[in-house]
Amino acid sequence: MSQIREQNKAPEKELSETEIRNLSDAEFQTLAIRMLNDLRENFNREIGSIKMEMEAIKKNQSEIKDTIMEMKTILHGINCRLNEAEDPTSDVEDKVAENTEPGQQKEKRIQKIEESLRGFWDNIKHINIRIIGVPEGEEREQGIENLSEEIMRENFPNLVKEIDIQAQKAQRVPNKISPKKPTPRHIIIKMQKVKDKERILKAAREKQLVTDKGAPIRLSADFSTETLQARRDWQEIFQVMKSIDLQPRLLYPARLSFRIEGQIRIFPDNKKLKEFITTK
């Protein structure tokens, strides 16, 4: 029993295999119980730490949701006040004319809030890849994460050897199937790193034809609804610039760049582009 008592006094010292074999049954049982208690305490500490981290994550998610709701409330309130101000009578028109400056400031505030909300969603989606055209139900047998990884292996076998293609999360969007839309819902996969997402999309552009079990599909970046519309708004101008060899490019999230007079110009929206053109 002297060995086990010494072990109890100095728990940080581990017994060698020879010392353990020399213990009596009672000493060995005592040692085993103590080690199991230590394991249980360590396990409980780990569980406690995980619970604290989960609570912190939930708190952050709750704060983000609260911020979004607050911004939506502000937008709704401003829009309501603007609608109430739209009266066709001449008296109201006179008041609007007298308060042109405050109205402009209000419009700028609305635009700033909308841009902040759009930027917030684009930051969340920046690490995502959108897969378009995969038939519904194909993920039932293997899981949607495994399906997305198989698509990467089928199309980019060399790239798969260099980067981690395992998705943090994958899901169909929207959550429910709409009978009004015969096309399959898109798959959103959240990558481990933005750099990996960009390399995959670059490889998809170079390959041109991306497939799922031989059937053509598409890969694209994931954008907020507002940003997606802003990118579409550039398309006509983009094609015109391409036809006259201005080397246009659509930059993230919805900026247009092109080369003119030996310089690369970048514009965040049509308004800035029009201002540039009118001053030339």
From TrEMBL:
Residues 92-107 have a biased composition (Basic and acidic residues). It holds the Pfam family Tnp_22_dsRBD. Residues 128-222 form the L1 transposable element RRM domain. Signal peptide: none annotated. Residues 226-280 form the L1 transposable element dsRBD-like domain. Residues 86-107 are annotated as: Disordered. Belongs to the transposase 22 family. This is L1 transposable element RRM domain-containing protein. It comes from Rhinolophus ferrumequinum.
